[in-house]
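= Tokenised fold =
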Amino acid sequence: MEPVLTTIDSRFTAHDERNTSRYTIPMAKPDYDFIYQHACERKGGEKALKALLPKTASKKHLQKLGSDRYLAEYTRKIFQSGFVWRVVDKKMAPVRRTLLGV
């Protein structure tokens, strides 16, 4: 039997009449200009906000990096979720040794 779409209210849609525990709320596209302007206001202006952002490497520099550096950074980001930075930093040394043979 095909799932039947039923509207519960203007935001929620049940995907199957028999199982109304599965709902979705359509996600609107964020207004990035509004978010950026709001961040500028909160942080004291565009210059102050940009000073808080991390420095990024050039495209040329990133192209020179080996695959091992990308894998190490992906690993770092996975470890980072839910951990304190100093814990991640302590755990990365053995990972680097394993991945890089250093």
User: Anything to note?
Assistant: Residues 58-102 form one domain. DSSP finds five helices and three strands in the chain. Confidence is low (pLDDT under 50) at residues 1-9. The first strand starts at residue 6 and ends at 7.
